[in-house]
Amino acid sequence: MRLPAVEVRRLYFRYDKEYVLEDVTATIWDQEYIAIIGPNGGGKSTFIRLLLGLVQPTKGEILLYNKPPLQARHLVGYLPQNVNFNLEIPLLAREVILQGRLGPKKFRFDATDYKLLAQVAKELEIDTLLDKKIANLSGGERQRVLLARALITKPKLLILDEPTAAVDINAQKRIYAILKTLKMTKIVISHDINILLEGVDRVFYLNRRLFIHENIPLKLKNNGGHFCEMELFEELKRRCDG
Amino acid sequence: MGEMLHFFANSFFAAALLSVAIGVVGSLMLINRYNYLAASIAHGSYGGVGMALYLGSSILLGATLFAVALALLLAFMTYRRHRHLDIFIGVLWAVGMSIGIIFTDLTPGYTTDLLSYLFGDILMIPNSDLWFMGAVDLLATLFLSVFYHQLLAIAYDKEFALTRSVPVALLHTCTLLLIALTIVMSIRSIGLILVIALFSIPPYIAERFAKNFWQMVLLSVPIAFFIIASGLTIAYYLDISATATIILLAALAFSITFLQGER
Fold first, then answer.
1. Distance, in angstroms, between B155 CA and closest chain A CA?
2. pLDDT in tens, A52-66
3. B216 and A104 in contact by Cβ < 8 A?
4. Cβ B39 vs Cβ B196: under 8 Å
5. How many structural domains does chain B have?
6. What residues in chain A have their Cβ under 8 A from chain B's Cβ atoms?
7. Pairwise CA distance, residues A100 & B107, whole Å
8. Which domain range does residue B120 map to?
């Protein structure tokens, strides 16, 4: 029997007077790989922030493994969009990864944390980066370090916000290859439609309202991956409106 | 002669205690980009100095209460990311100073040199201030030691820290309160106007050489002490203002580091 990892029911969210999300209902199953695409300002990042409990819904309900988001944070690994980091701080990559082990009452790292650090660094092949300053890493290396920070929590649900933004094509391929191997529920926001060719199970198209498509990746493959972003969005919109 | 030696010894003690505060709190200010907030607290707390003069109470107490109130208000406003935050910070800065000036004007028979609070005088530090400075240093060092990883996580990526349920609002408020106390402890030695420059420059220089944050803090302390002690010595021999000399030396060190970084 399939277990629900994420249940979203009649979700509404607004900043000031304008609704960013309207009547969003969806179930994401355990071990599913979901891509969320949609235009800028369509509510993708807000949806993620709601799942993480960083903002509260105006209306509606969210459950992560049958718990409200604030009670399920220990089950979630998160890789934020690579824009707001303060790179002026002298921080080693290992210190950044270990931040994933912090909690409300956890101030110090113990032997288990260091063991997990070594494990995740080996898995993501970043052992040699651990003692480098985070500011000195390339975009791709930094993303793998941040992915390690998300994975060191041993999450059941991994949420990634634009994991391949601002990295070169080789780094993108490497990140997608890593994601394919991870055995957990995965939700990836991306404006890069290449994600659809990377083995996702379903595509969520979010533009204030949510539209779910089961077969877009297959169709893309059949077309040789020649959909451009606008064509894809138009196609999705047309079908959803229909 | 004995009295002069006493003042000189006190000023070196003050320099050492200030250097510890610069290392810990100055570094926290820098990585959190709180310098503008700290400047607002520093200038605004002049309101507490003026009110204490008017009421005839302890200036240290007046400035502390005022600075703490400003820090709490700013903590609330910055955490909520208020839309007009920059204006709000600037208004608090100006209102605090204006309150200070008006209460000073209203104080009957007030003759103390106002400049001593605005620009400080490290040669005139009484023993009671040294105890206060030591207590703030101890508090700052304990705070950083206990919450080191959580504070770094917040400074690097606040949103991720929130997803780990780190008490971001509480630690943000405590950091601003610590900045307020540090500013108050520095009023008599470096003054409200110059305090931010001296708290920013040594950590900025240290950051260039440090591999991690502990190194940045530990390097900032001797850099700060070297600048302050050199300034004191030069000012003594040239018979010029110690605080102004210290700030100019710090600015020189800053310029050299900045230009090297630009190469």
1. 7
2. 999 999 999 999 999
3. no
4. yes
5. 1
6. 52-54, 70, 73, 76, 78, 80, 84-86, 88-92, 95-96, 98-100, 102-104, 107-109, 133-134, 149, 153
7. 55
8. 2-192
